[in-house]
């Protein structure tokens, strides 16, 4: 589902270039839950953004479901992302002035005004993630766990084939982290592909396979 071949990324800084990712290859098959673990600054977020069609690598290739997102025109790439890839981040990235339900429906808006089927998909996710009582509240009124479940529901709205999660449990207590990690696991069990990047040892125990990263490189597979 996700194939990354020898990707590299160097950022330019006033103090000179910083190689964030050097020559990393990784495959995540449908039904697999892969975790990349490594210390802060080792290049995990950079790798995830490149995997998700959000940051063009300097070298190497990315394929999502046999499509190179960087080979698509920007608007086509945005639609491809909205349909095929779900993102979950540590900081949730919910829209503060939209309700929980509107946040969950937001990726539907990227494609078209949500139709009845999309709205019923949102309702199903709201039920599944225990958000029914909170759906008409704004994110600021919710707990961190509820906000991350909202972000996960939003990520799943369009039934993506790939879920990319960047430190999704970084702001959660143990119980809420367990809930979210089990949801990622369920997504993989249902045939999706999950790539989780994190520094958290506990989080990686949910994955089928763990890749260790250090200073922009994979050190152990
Ligand atoms: N937008 C950016 N501009 C310049 N340097 C960056 C940028 N994003 C990340 N970096 C640098 O790239 C390296 C890897 O960062 P990152 O991918 O965020 O690692 P991680 O997610 O593992 O903490 C770090 O040295 C970081 O400072
Ligand atoms: Mg990071």
TrEMBL record:
<keyword id="KW-0067">ATP-binding</keyword>
<protein>
    <submittedName>
        <fullName>Lipoprotein-releasing system ATP-binding protein LolD</fullName>
        <ecNumber>3.6.3.-</ecNumber>
    </submittedName>
</protein>
<keyword id="KW-0378">Hydrolase</keyword>
<keyword id="KW-0547">Nucleotide-binding</keyword>
<dbReference type="Pfam" id="PF00005">
    <property type="entry name" value="ABC_tran"/>
</dbReference>
<dbReference type="GO" id="GO:0016887">
    <property type="term" value="F:ATP hydrolysis activity"/>
</dbReference>
<dbReference type="InterPro" id="IPR003439">
    <property type="entry name" value="ABC_transporter-like_ATP-bd"/>
</dbReference>
<dbReference type="InterPro" id="IPR027417">
    <property type="entry name" value="P-loop_NTPase"/>
</dbReference>
<dbReference type="InterPro" id="IPR003593">
    <property type="entry name" value="AAA+_ATPase"/>
</dbReference>
<keyword id="KW-0813">Transport</keyword>
<dbReference type="InterPro" id="IPR015854">
    <property type="entry name" value="ABC_transpr_LolD-like"/>
</dbReference>
<dbReference type="InterPro" id="IPR017911">
    <property type="entry name" value="MacB-like_ATP-bd"/>
</dbReference>
<dbReference type="GO" id="GO:0005524">
    <property type="term" value="F:ATP binding"/>
</dbReference>
<dbReference type="GO" id="GO:0005886">
    <property type="term" value="C:plasma membrane"/>
</dbReference>
<feature type="domain" description="ABC transporter">
    <location>
        <begin position="2"/>
        <end position="221"/>
    </location>
</feature>
<dbReference type="GO" id="GO:0022857">
    <property type="term" value="F:transmembrane transporter activity"/>
</dbReference>
<keyword id="KW-0449">Lipoprotein</keyword>
